[in-house]
Amino acid sequence: MASIHFDLVSQWRIEAPVERVWAALTDPDAWPRWWPYVLGVQTLREGGADGVGSVRRIDWATRLPYRLLIEVEAVESVRLQRLRARSRGQLDGEGLWLLRADGGGTDVTYVWRVRVVKRWMRWLSPLLAPLFRWNHGVVMRAGEDGLR
Description:
- This protein is of the alpha+beta class and 148 residues long.
- The protein has helices at residues 18-25, 31-34, 119-147, and strands spanning 5-14, 38-45, 55-60, 68-78, 82-89, 91-102, 105-116.
- The chain has a seven-stranded antiparallel sheet with strand order 1-7-6-5-4-3-2.
- It is globular and about 45 Å long.
- The protein starts with a strand and ends with a helix.
């Protein structure tokens, strides 16, 4: 069966300095405290001082009746500007966080190009793609609200 890709883009506006937003996003072990759909984070490998090379297993709930377990490896970090990571597991792909200071606030863009791995998701993607996109949007909005 052909690979099914999704390109998902989320934009957040956080009324906090970019340093605070950066600190929150670069501390995924703390995500369960403010991101309701993050059920748990387990560090599998520590990275360098900038986090690059770290690998974490993240257990995600969703608005739909399924959970996702994904291993995320940090592959790039440009302080206060950009974070890039690769994911593998039940979803494979690459995510990119882009931060831009704007006055006292921060504009955040998250771009995730993901390939569906689970067999049932691959089979149903042609039919359920709008629902999968909606689900991703709900999870991301909850993250934005929690971070605010």
